[in-house]
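Apologies for my clumsy wording, but can you show me some protein sequence, whichever is easiest, together with the matching structure tokens, please?
=====
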Amino acid sequence: MRITSKGQVTIPQHIREAAGLLPHTEVEFVLEDGRVYVRRLEGAPGRGGALVEHLRGRGAVSMTTDEIMRLTRDE
């Protein structure tokens, strides 16, 4: 395996799957005793959590939940 001129390397699929490293997973690099470790960043929001945080507070609808449900059910 070789590092590209941009500093990139491909993590083999079987290793990504075994470690649970999905696309958009936040990782960190740790240097210990001359070795480099890649590990999932603890406490980082997952893809769903990041999406919820992005959307939080953006709603400008003054309807109640019941009113929204009536609209979605064509009542």
